[in-house]
Amino acid sequence: MFRLLIILLFTLGCSTYISAQSVNIYVGANLNKEIDAMYSYQYSSVNEAVEKAYSLRKQDPELDLKIFVGQGQYNLDRPILLNSQLNGLSIQAVKGEQVSISGAKPLPLKWKKEKQGRYVASVKGLPKFDQLIINGKLQTLARYPNYSEDAKYWNGTAEDAISPERIATWKHPEGAIFHAMHGGKWGGFHYRITGVDDNGEAILEGGKQNNRPSRPHKEIRFVENVFEELDAAGEWFVDQQKEKIYYMPAADLDLKNAACEGVVLKNLISIRGTEAKKAKDITVKGIKFQFTKRTIFEPYEQLLRSDWSIYRGGALFLSQAENCQISDCEFTDLGGNVIFISGYNRNHKITGNHIHDCGASAVSFVGESKAVRSPSFTYREFETLDEMDHTWGPKSEDYPSDCVVDDNLIYRIGRLEKQTAGVQIAMAMNITVRHNSIYQVPRAGINVGDGTWGGHVLEYNDVFDTVLETGDHGSFNSWGRDRFWHPNRGKMNELVKAQPLMPYWDAVNTTVIRNNRFRCDHGWDIDLDDGSSNYHIYNNLCLNGGLKLREGFRRVVENNVIINNSLHPHVWFEHSRDIFRRNIVQDSYKDVGMAGWGDEMDYNFFPFEESLMKSQVYGIDAHSAYGNPDFIDPSKMDYNVRQGSKALSIGFVNFDMDAFGVQKPSLKAIAKTPEVPQPKKLAGKANDSRAVEWLRATIKSVDSPEEQSAYGLNSDEGVIVLKIGAHSPLTKSGIKNRDVILEAEDTKVADLKNFFSLLKEHQGQQQIKVKIMRNQQVENHTISLR
């Protein structure tokens, strides 16, 4: 009876406070006259509940506080800030109830029909919003070309998006928003149009969203926020001067009775401590977060010398915090980054979340540059060795460390921004990314932006359908343009020769990539780009794009299965200390500009003899083998090998093929899996010899009367140059596609095996003399082997 009296007094707004060990606060969209005895207070808004929590903690700092949010949608009037005063607080949905927290605000629009099916309403006195929601669904800001779900880039692009001819049809070009892909498709750019010059060209402002400057892509571009482009169902436009909104509804939409909202907040919850008082032990659980503003014109920050610039913010933002947990939540229709962990953070857990259909990155760990010793910020920027700090590791603690991203389902992120990732890591240490399913993304699924400071563990993830709108990237991507890295390769060689341990000044801890499944159809499955160093990569299943190792140090790659592809070693250092062993590959190595082959390249399993012989020409893979690996069940993506497989003879060990991706039952039930690879044809005909890549060119044996006739040969002998890749030494040597190599060093070439045997005899030479057949004419050439 006494407890019920206390509850009643607080419900009526009594300010009297009676101490208790634990207090539960209930939030309900529709307040109840009677509340459950477990709740001490009830409010109709989350903000009010948080304010009450602050008030209670001010009176009793040791009070155990929980906020339970009941069924309904809660439109925030301002972001929720949780600081150290609320340490230990949990905000969670009432079990079994659907709870949504939104950054949108209801719009009391009174629509009037205009011509051509268009409607208009006044927005006078309403807050400014950057996205329109009708009946819970985001609508399309008036754009050209019109939105198409089937379009590859940005749901529709056009070369003439801001052509003078098109701009001439707009009364007010100023205020239009122009989007374009990077010239090399390394992300995207976003601009405001501020006017038109004397030539009718758009005057652009912006384009700071990528750390590798380029001109806007000439073809992959679109424009929005133009009144004259409002011509398709679902499109809208606000005339700020007239204070009117225009909308083109679908034919079956009852607009007068529709619920209209505008997105007004860019952040929903911030967990922020200070250097002196960390925010600790705060939990957010079981809530759906929806609708935040786009952040493409917020200040962007360069992330060292990676290709990234980023807005340091998100729908959920954590800074100066420890031991916080975000679990079992759904995040959708968010305009920018989803979860952003900034600067000093320790021991957070992001688990069991469903993240989809958002504008930028899903989960980002980004330290502060003041924690980096001698930081450089652009590709061409560097400090001299004399100027540089030579101390190992971080300079301060202003970075995320020892955090876990586990068992999350992430897809269709980067809907607006293209330099994005499912999980982004930069200037951080010891981040674990485990059992996540990540797919349908425009760039990398998981990206590590630099070597500072390593120690990450990436395991049991399922990452596929990546690099869908960009290029030159991988399902996993990393950069390592750390203190040792220099844009001039010769200078970099000098640096690491003088300071052999320099690559580990920043990459102080080994990053482990193990037991993952990757598939990239538009790049590499695993892409360790410029300078990436100190990695251990093992027990991974790569389904399509292969594994790339550009220049770097101490990458140990072992016991991986690479389907339909191979290792792509690019411009290694002479003493890289790299190791590639006990891997199953299904093609010859795709080497480019190699100065050395690391500490060990051996005990690997190739598909056929010629692919192995090509490696042995370089003096590597002496103990490797070739043949059919005898996979257990490729149709079900079980690429373990059967007992008795020749792959076991080189030391390959089977690993778990059933544990990839999200494991939470409710998420696993809806998660997709990658497409089963179709066996790659390694030759043009059933009786053809296998094609092999050599010096960035594809070559094969002449092995049929048909080919003898086609190339005008005296016999069915020789080696055909099928295709010469970019920057191949063969081009500089005057060799062309469809040339046939007849002799090497004055010795007749019978076939590919014979050719590689001859090359092995002349191993170490800088060049070889060859005799070729071209257009039924014999010619002599000298081929550079470097």
* Contiguous uncertain segments of 5+ residues: 1-20, 683-687
Distance between the termini: 90 Å
Shape: globular
Write down how many β-strands occur, each being a DSSP E stretch of 2 or more residues.
Answer: 67
The share of residues in helices is under 10%
Query: Can you give the mean pLDDT?
Result: 94
Radius of gyration: 30 Å
Give the amount of beta strand, in percent: 25-35%
Q: What's the story with the biggest beta sheet?
A: 15 strands, parallel
Continuous helix count:
9
Q: Enumerate the strands of the largest sheet in spatial order, edge to edge or round the barrel.
A: 2-1-3-6-24-29-32-36-39-42-45-48-51-54-56
Helix/strand-derived category reads mainly beta
Structure in words:
9% of the residues lie in helices and 33% in strands. It is mainly beta and 786 residues long. Among the domains are: 2-69, no CATH class; 105-263, no CATH class; 692-784, Pdz3 Domain (Roll), CATH 2.30.42.10. The chain has a 15-stranded parallel sheet with strand order 2-1-3-6-24-29-32-36-39-42-45-48-51-54-56. Strands 5, 22, 23, 28, 31, 34, 35, 38, 41, 44, 47, 50 and 53 form a 13-stranded parallel sheet that branches.
